[in-house]
Amino acid sequence: MAYQDQPQTETRVWGGQRVRYVRDIRKVPGIPPEQRERLARVAQQYRFRANDYYLSLIDWTDPEDPIRRLIIPTEEELTSGGKLDACNERAVTVARGVQHKYPHTVLLLCNEVCGAYCRYCFRKRLFMDDNDETTNDISEGLAYIADHPEVTNVLLTGGDPLLMSTRRLVDVLDALRAIPHVKIIRIGSKMPAFDLWRILDDEQLQEAFRTYSTPRQRIYLMAHFDHPRELTDAAVRAIDRFLRSGIICANQCPLVKGINDDPAVLADLFQQLSWIGCPPYYLFQGRPTAGNEPYEVPIVRGWHIFQEALRQGSGLARRARFVISHETGKIEVVAIDTSRIYVRYHRAKDTHNRGRFMMYERNDEAHWVDQLEPVSGTDTPKFPPSSRLELCEGPD
Ligand code: SF4
Known about the structure:
Layout: E1 9-14, E2 17-22, H1 33-45, E3 50-51, H2 52-55, H3 66-71, E4 93-95, E5 98-99, E6 105-109, H4 139-146, E7 153-157, H5 166-177, E8 184-189, H6 191-194, H7 197-200, H8 203-212, E9 219-223, H9 233-244, E10 248-254, H10 263-275, E11 280-284, H11 299-311, E12 321-326, E13 329-336, E14 340-348, E15 357-361
Parallel strand pairs: 6-7, 7-8, 8-9, 9-10, 10-11, 11-12
Antiparallel strand pairs: 1-2, 2-3, 4-5, 5-6, 12-13, 13-14, 14-15
Residues 114, 117-118, 121, 123, 160, 190, 224 line the site of iron/sulfur cluster.
């Protein structure tokens, strides 16, 4: 169904709790009337979706409120360049909805909708009408995984897998557990932040987790909390429910301008996550995706925010890595001094890059590795120029 033909509101009932979803930004009461049409124009280009629970976390008296910034569009998105697929995920797509970039890991993009849409999303292309990268039918993905015994780790992602029906999710878990070489199943989800009733009220889902997350082959929740205010009592109860169902929890999120680009905020987030049993795993540099420029933080500034946040936490709050998730692999920023930026491949697509250490001239304006110049005399590669030059077309 084309986006414009879809219902603009819907109600989901998980157990006894009703959560009302809204797609038409003009129906969000907190937005001043004079802004509604302008923001609707942005939402025509990059989809908007939210629900009453998450909207209730916004302080509407603060135009810079971080929760507001996370889901309410800003007009600058329309003048921000970049590619929709900034990291060329198509290049590692081996079948519809199946990505295979690192030998042991396969991604199944099994859903094309999220509880709300983060404005900085690097997969916003999946929510557009012409998306052909996700699939509800994962049989091809399962056959691919079964044929590749080196794949020990499957990540369910999308979109948000926890927006699938419980029956479908159970079928997916059951099918993956029938493949003996798949040891770890990861579920990438922001539902514990966006719509935690999905977990709290679904006893059948929790029972499935207890069944398929076994002592030797665990299921991991890769949660996505960006700001400490998302850790409401109900969200913490949802994480507790995952843990009690035998799920291992960890958190990954990007560093986002105006949301968590403050050492005190990030330290608070990391510490609270470590307390609730969902310690930080990755902090991502924002990808130069179309429409995302208003949300990006330069690498050098991001590194200093990250370091200062780490200094304020105990050991378990400090386990995150600050990583640039690049087309060629996950590049970890390991140090910055007055003249250089030092990085290392944490994961690499090509075997010859694994663990490779690289040195770049310090550039305080750079947002992405392709803006960095290698230190001369080293074998550090220069990445092709940024896609930022390609301005996206406007909505009309
Ligand atoms: S939850 Fe993840 S996939 Fe969904 S909109 Fe946010 S960043 Fe994108």
